[in-house]
Design brief:
The protein is mainly alpha-helical and about 140 residues long. Helices cover about 60% and strands about 10% of the residues.
Length: about 140
């Protein structure tokens, strides 16, 4: 089992991202909160990479509108923390860009995305959790 230690710089970047985000973080009556669904998605990200691999996880998450927001957040953090190795979307999807990389680059991207996921998961703890009441089966 791999236990990732959070990187303070990545954590600070994740907190800044969420402070300025309006897709995952919802502001109501000057109170910011995150839907519990997003917290469960980010919690499942690492396991999904282990089970399905990087490409399978990206394709699965990007096929779902809510999960796609998590991928977008992770790549925003990735691009902020690694400005010399930015990953951009092709046809509004990140997996199409990642698939053009060689195996060593994919491994590096995978490890960095896991680091971003750890930082984002910890940063989400700074916000109140709201339960999703929409009853959509995803």
């Amino acid at each position: 089992m791999i236990i990732k230690k959070p990187n303070n710089k990545h954590l600070e970047t994740a907190i800044d991202f969420l402070d300025n985000d309006n897709t995952i973080v919802v502001t109501k009556n000057r109170s910011k909160s995150i839907d519990s669904t997003y917290k469960s998605y980010i919690s499942s990200f690492g396991g999904a990479i282990i089970q399905s691999g990087l490409m399978g996880t990206l394709m699965t998450f990007e096929a779902n509108d809510k999960k796609k927001k998590i991928i977008h957040a992770l790549f925003q953090l990735y691009n902020t923390n690694f400005p010399n190795d930015k990953i951009n979307q092709i046809n509004r999807e990140y997996f199409r860009t990642v698939k053009t990389k060689n195996e060593n680059e994919k491994k590096e991207i995978k490890n960095r995305l896991i680091d971003m996921a750890v930082a984002l998961k910890l940063a989400m703890r700074c916000y109140e959790t709201k339960e999703d009441n929409s009853n959509n089966n995803e």
